[in-house]
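Input chain follows. Return structure tokens only.
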Amino acid sequence: MKSLWENDTRRELRERLGQLTAEKPALWGKMNAPQMVAHLTQAMRMTTGELPVARKSTPMGFPPLNWLVIYWLPWPQGTPTAPELLAGKSTAWPTDVAVLDDLVAGFGSLDRDRAWPIHPVFGKLSAKMWGALGWKHIDHHLRQFGV
């Protein structure tokens, strides 16, 4: 599985992000492109611990279920998300895309041995799992908009 820890993977995601326009229609779901970019920005801020997100009680917060969902199962369309990850506000398209691009680019410089936040659904994750989950989430939403 690809991971945000890989330079080539981050470069690929950033190139795909560059192909997105604010007017690009979604192939599924309720978000428009600016809302999706704001959502991914909030998710990346959650990943770094900058945005605290309330924990949910779910069996997916424990191995082996979290491992199974992160590494093996496809990400279903219309999956519910934490309200904190929908609270991001769009400002100006170029600025919003640049902020997300910077967060994706900067992921590789994070300390893998740092204290990682607890994921609201998947619980305690390793640096490796955060990298895989980050790639899977961003890829899912870019495919949602056909890029």
